Amino acid sequence: MAKSILVTGGAGYIGSHTVLQLLLGGYSIVVVDNLDNSSDIALKRVKELAGDFGKNLVFHQVDLRDKPALEKIFARTKFDAVIHFAGLKAVGESVQKPLLYFNNNLTGTITLLEVMASHGCKQLVFSSSATVYGCPKEVPCTEEFPLSAASPYGRTKLFIEGICCDIYRSDSEWKIILLRYFNPVGAHPSGHIGEDPRGIPNNLMPYVQQIAVGRRPHLTVYGTDYSTKDGTGVRDYIHVVDLADGHIAALCKLSDANIGCEVYNLGTGKGTSVLEMVAAFEKASRKKIPLVMAARRPGDAEIVYAATEKAERELNWKAKYGIDEMCRDQWNWAGKNPYGYGSSDSTN
Ligand code: NAD
Ligand code: UD1
C-alpha cells in the first residue's frame, strides 16, 4: 500500500515542489497549510502536473496551532511520517515581530508533535536552515559546526532542532531527520510552480527575477568588499527540485532501524557569488539586470556553503543541477507567471 505522508506547509515554495515529487513517487499526501504565505493555486497546479497521481493529494486549509482540527486529520488517516515545512521565514520581519515568529513556528511545531505522539506517528522530517551556522569561521559547513542564531527566525530553527533531539532522548521510538537547507532557488522545469513571495522579496533570486520581468528597477548588491573572488557574498544555491528529492531520500532513511535524531545538510557544496549568480540569470533570461553597489547587509555572512558528504553517504542523495539550470527554470517560471500565482493588479 502507498505510504501516507502529512506535509505541513505543502502549499509553499519548497513544499509544493516536494509534494509533486512525492506524488510522482507513488506516495499518498495530505497537505495542511493555512495559506498565510501561499496560494491554493500552487496545489491545483501540482495536482495537474502529477497526472493520474494527482488523485492521491488531499488539502486542508488549517493552521497548525489549531489542535482540534489537527486531531481530526490524524484521526481520519494513519500517517507513516510527517514532513514539516510550515513556518514563517522572513528574517527581517522576525526581528520586528519576534513573538509572532515564536508563536507561529514554535507553538505550531509543538502542537504538531503533541498530536503526532498521541496518534503514534513518530517519524518526522523537519525543515531547518543553514542560518543555524551563523557566520561560519570556515567552509564548507559540516553538520558538526557550532550553531548560533542571528535572528528570532534562526532561533526558532535552533529551538526546534533542540526540541526534536530532546523528544528522541525521551522516547527512542521517534525517528527524526533535520534537514539544513542552503539557498533554494529555481522552479519546476514545467514553469507551472515556483516561488511567489508576498511583498518585496528579501532573497536574492526572487528579487532578480522581478527585475527581469520589469517589476523592480535594479538590484542592490549588498557588499562588494568581502574576501571573495569578486568581493560579493558567496552562497550555496540549490535547485528546489533537488531539494524536493532530498526529502524523498530522507523519508527512505526513516525506514532504517535506530536512526534516532539525525541532521543533514542539503546543499550542492559549491559556492557562487552574487555577481556570478546575476551573470547566470542574465544569460538564461537574456535580460540585463541593472546593479547598484551598496554597503553590506547587517547580519550577512561572507561565504557559506555546505559539506555534502554526510547526505551523499547516508541519504544516498546528491544535488544534480547547477546554477545554469536553476536560472533557466526560474526564468521559465517567471516568464510564464510574472506576477506569480496572482495577477498584475495585486499589491505585490
Ligand atoms: P513558504 O513560506 O513558501 O512555505 C511555508 C508554508 O507554511 C506556507 O505555505 C505558509 O502558508 C505555511 N504556514 C506558515 N505557518 C503556518 C501555520 N501556523 N499553519 C499552517 N501553515 C503555515 O516557505 P518555503 O520557502 O517553502 O520554506 C519552507 C520551510 O523551509 C520553512 O520552514 C522555512 O523556514 C524553511 N527554509 C526555507 C529556506 C528558503 O530559503 N526558502 C531556507 C531554509 C529553510
Ligand atoms: C538569507 C537569510 C537566512 C535565510 C536565507 C534563506 C539574512 C541575513 N539571512 O540568507 O537567514 O536562511 O536567506 O531564506 O537575511 N543579496 C544582495 N541583494 C539583495 C538580496 C541579497 O546582494 O537584494 C545578497 C546577499 O547579501 C547574499 C546573497 O545575495 O550575499 C544571498 O542573499 P539571500 O538570498 O538573502 O540569502 P542569505 O543571505 O544566504
Automatic annotation (TrEMBL):
Extract one GO molecular function annotation from the record: UDP-glucose 4-epimerase activity
Gene Ontology annotations of biological process type? galactose metabolic process
**Listed cofactors:** NAD(+)
Question: CDD domains, per this entry?
Answer: UDP_G4E_1_SDR_e
Q: Which reaction does it catalyse?
A: UDP-alpha-D-glucose = UDP-alpha-D-galactose
Pfam families recorded: GDP_Man_Dehyd
Which UniProt keywords are given for this protein, alphabetically ordered?
Carbohydrate metabolism, Galactose metabolism, Isomerase, NAD
Residues annotated as domain NAD(P)-binding? 6-329
The biological pathway it contributes to is:
Carbohydrate metabolism; galactose metabolism
- Give the highest taxon in the source lineage: Eukaryota
Q: Which GO terms describe its cellular component?
A: cytosol
Q: Which Gene3D superfamilies match?
A: NAD(P)-binding Rossmann-like Domain (3.40.50.720), UDP-galactose 4-epimerase, domain 1 (3.90.25.10)
List the EC numbers from the record. 5.1.3.-
Family note: Belongs to the NAD(P)-dependent epimerase/dehydratase family.
Q: What is this protein called?
A: UDP-glucose 4-epimerase
What is the scientific name of the source organism? Populus alba x Populus x berolinensis
